[in-house]
Amino acid sequence: MNWKNNPVEKIKDWESELADNHQNFIKAGLKLDLTRGKPAIEQLALADGLDGILQGNYLASDGTDTRNYGGLTGLPEARNLGAEWLGLPQEEVIVSGNSSLSLMYQVLHVGAHYGFGGTPWLQQSTPPEFLAIVPGYDRHFAICEKLGIKMVNIPMKADGPDMEMVETQVRRPQVKGLWCVPKYSNPTGNIYSAEVVDRIARLGNQAASDFRIMWDNAYAVHDHHEDAPELTNLMELCRLHGTQDSVFLIGSTSKVTLAGAGISFLGGSKANIAHFLEEMAYWTIGPDKVNQLRHARLLPDLAATKKHMQKHAEITRPKFELVLKKLEESFRDQEMGSWISPEGGYFVSFDSLPGHAKEIVRLAGEAGVKMTPAGSTFPYGIDPEDKNIRLSPTFPPIEDLSKAMDIFVNCVQLATIRRHLGEQ
Amino acid sequence: MNWKNNPVEKIKDWESELADNHQNFIKAGLKLDLTRGKPAIEQLALADGLDGILQGNYLASDGTDTRNYGGLTGLPEARNLGAEWLGLPQEEVIVSGNSSLSLMYQVLHVGAHYGFGGTPWLQQSTPPEFLAIVPGYDRHFAICEKLGIKMVNIPMKADGPDMEMVETQVRRPQVKGLWCVPKYSNPTGNIYSAEVVDRIARLGNQAASDFRIMWDNAYAVHDHHEDAPELTNLMELCRLHGTQDSVFLIGSTSKVTLAGAGISFLGGSKANIAHFLEEMAYWTIGPDKVNQLRHARLLPDLAATKKHMQKHAEITRPKFELVLKKLEESFRDQEMGSWISPEGGYFVSFDSLPGHAKEIVRLAGEAGVKMTPAGSTFPYGIDPEDKNIRLSPTFPPIEDLSKAMDIFVNCVQLATIRRHLGEQ
Fold first, then answer.
1. What does each C-alpha distance from B79 to A380, B63, B90, B274, B302 come to in angstroms?
2. CATH code for position A361
């Protein structure tokens, strides 16, 4: 039964019960953290074989001594893995260091300051803009903010971004790009449908010539189940529509091997990759090829990577199941919030009733559960409806996660009921 | 006897002898490379202990799990090594990935686009300039060129840059910095004297408030002999003169452990480091801490690092001795060129007679010896006197180096004599 159908007195009783719980949580002085999408210790340990895997053999398949300088593109075997990951031929992929965020910053700073073939974005007559699918990844948005690229919110729907709005926006020539996490989107966890991917592939024909889709396929192999849905290959469709130059594709092994010490992939058309390599030569002599070789030895191809990811899923799946069970038990048919049940990735996105997210996060903090600040899944930290809250279940041990979710549920209920009573 | 004192006929005979040699070199079809300062395979092998050194223990001294995200500053133990290297307290040093070039690009791109406390360099009314000590390191100059920072040449003298010229230049407020390789300068191999370091430390009091000295101490421990000269501590003098904010200090283990897979150090005042960390957060979640831990285990402090470098010296010293012996035997009192005998570092800088460098490099290329292009040790690739040639003896096996030097000597002699005869 929906809680609102209860008599006011009963709701008031519930409110004091929730408030008591809340006080008890505060007294318990817990320190739980649901903020960031970090792998758990057990997940990291799955890659402990990396250190020492080389057994003194530092030579790559093409004879490169990985210990010395050079090799801007990355090693052939690492490029092969990136190529399978991103769905591209090897020559359209380069492999870099431990941070795909760095690659993304670099790509956008090239557009902003040096340009993609024409006038740099920041030197054009109209200031550049980017489309931000919301809710989305705060660090994507921060790059735009830092570079002075104005963001326009595009709502996320079940099958991907609102494409009508995207298509209308990209006709304005100052719109220079689009942030996408197409599979297990951060934080909503949904996957772009084949139709949406096809419409995204066509954007290059409607947008400015220096428009670039940032296709951050961070969770390409991060499935909770073996029979996970497939993401449609964007570049194949771009080739069909003649828009290959409109896209950069990104991936990394941060959540496959080691979060701080993985390797990252950048994909794009031959022209885009050639251009980016020219730029890169100004700021590096080459990536850490030794670590790339370690990765290629541990994960020789995508099949091996997917097999490795099954071990991750065994650790993460129960945590997601727990979170979803708690949400389901507490909020099903209760009109206190909504969420999507993701089939992979690192997040559960919870939408409270409008205007409640900040208060819920504040209450949770008080009760010892650190949450991603409300608003941080939106550009400039502003959630216009103040409702989105990102839950990151992977890092804490499952007992801590269970406690944290009990507290979270209590906070959602308390905030919602208090507001309801106040509005009576 | 100086060759010019010979009768013309004898010089002509010598010219044909040299030309014959040259033809024979061409026929031999050698492929030798003296271009870049790369460690030899035997040097790289000295660090083969790195892979596997962790023995499953990924925890840093402060309890950080190095495998996970975070830790922008780098690990405490790696910062300690960087602090000793750069001559700073630990809190004034951060440790990054495999490329100190990336750190230097990042520092300058912050100055250019975001500013050091004031208006970004590129948005000030007068376009920014940098002082380039010449000959110098091509990749330093390329960063300025890329960012649109105009360079002004400052001649290198035996004890460091021409400080009178530097002091005059920095009074112009558009001068925003100075590139220095203070120990075993690239390519000249000399060390800045204590007096020069002191005068550099004072520059911050005469220059614009957003002026930054780029103190690239790349060869801090790269001595050919144990009793190597010490470089004066710049930051201590800056503290004395109140100019701590005018300097960034840089180092890396690229030529200590692995050229492609080392760790890099950035030092500066607390204010400068705090500011840089704020900027860094836009483009990375943190450096590869696992590799930092490997390094700290192999090289727990500077004493261990210096001991490790003695093994390098045993490999590189004979190569430098060979190069210097060949130059000495061929050119002493011959007025065909001059050079400095470095006590460490990676280069021997050879100055031909003015106007000869390009031709010498061209001839060498013809004869199978690839050399750094003439001019590349100067901004914009322009050596105004066309005389400087950088020799990099470390990478080739000593037999190849010996052959390459014979060819080089022959090219210098041939180019010089031909020009002389042509001018008769």
1. 33, 15, 6, 15, 12
2. 3.90.1150.10
B103 neighbourhood in chain A, CB within 8 Å: none
Cα B401 from Cα B345, distance rounded (Å):
17
Token readout for B366 is 């013809």
Query: What amino acid occupies position B137?
Result: Y
For residue B53, being part of any structural domain is answered with no
d(CA A389, CA A393): 13
- Is there a single domain that holds both residue A93 and residue A13? no
CB contact under 8 A, A143 and B285: no
The distance of B91 to chain A (nearest Cα, Å) reads 22
pLDDT digits (tens, 9 = 90+) for B187-246: 999 999 999 999 999 999 999 999 999 999 999 999 999 999 999 999 999 999 999 999
Using an 8 Å CB-CB cutoff, list chain B residues near A98: 97, 287-288
What is the CATH classification number for the domain harbouring A212? Answer: 3.40.640.10
Which tokens hold the place of B393? 């003896």
Task: Write the pLDDT tens digit of every residue in B173-184.
Answer: 999 999 999 999
Q: What is the biggest distance separating any 2 CA atoms in chain B, rounded to whole angstroms?
A: 78
Summarize pLDDT for A119-161 with one digit per residue, the tens.
999 999 999 999 999 999 999 999 999 999 999 999 999 999 9
Query: Does B38 contact chain A (CB < 8 Å)?
Result: yes
Of B41, B284, B288, the CB nearest to A65: B41
Task: Give dist(CA B329, CA B204) in Å, integer.
Answer: 45
Contact B283 A97 (CB under 8 A): no
Is B48 a domain residue? no
Place of tokens 């991103």: A86
Strand order across the beta sheet in which B337-339 lies: B337-339, B348-352, B388-391
Say whether pLDDT at B423 is over 90: no
Greatest CA separation for chain A:
78
Tokens of A161: 């971004």
Per-residue model confidence as pLDDT tens digits over A206-219: 999 999 999 999 99
pLDDT score for B356: 98
Q: Do B288 and A105 touch (CB under 8 A)?
A: no
ipTM of the complex: 0.96
Minimal-distance CA residue of chain A relative to B71: A260
Q: How far is CA B216 from CA B22, B182, B186, B239, B249, in A?
A: 39, 7, 10, 19, 6
- Which positions 128-167 of A are in contact with B (Cβ < 8 Å)? 139, 142-143, 146
CB of B115 less than 8 A from some CB of A:
no
At residue A2 the predicted structure's pLDDT band, cuts being 50, 70 and 90, is confident
If we measure between CA atoms, which residue out of B328, B338, B266 comes closest to residue B85? B266
Distance of alpha carbon B272 from alpha carbon A165, whole angstroms: 43
B287 — contact with chain A (CB < 8 Å)? yes
In terms of residue numbers, what domain contains B418? 3-43+306-423
Q: What DSSP string runs through A318-346?
A: HHHHHHHHHHHHHHTTTSSEEE---SBSS
Q: From its phi and psi, is residue B2 left (phi > 0), alpha (psi between -120 and 50) or beta?
A: beta
| Residue B369, both tokens | 């010896």
If contacts are CB pairs under 8 Å, which of residues 253-282 in chain B contact chain A?
A: 254, 258-261, 282
CB contact under 8 A, B39 and A254: no
- For chain A, the first-to-last Cα distance in angstroms comes to 20
Q: Count the domains in chain B.
A: 2
Q: Tell me which chain A residue has its CA closest to the CA of residue B70.
A: A260
Measured in degrees and rounded to the nearest 5, phi and psi for residue B199 equal -65, -35
CA-nearest residue of chain A to B294? A51
> Dihedrals φ, ψ of A180, to 5°?
-135, 135
Q: For position A423, what pLDDT does the model report?
A: 81
Mean pLDDT over the full length of chain A: 97
- Which of A300, A325, A340 is the C-terminal boundary of a domain? A300
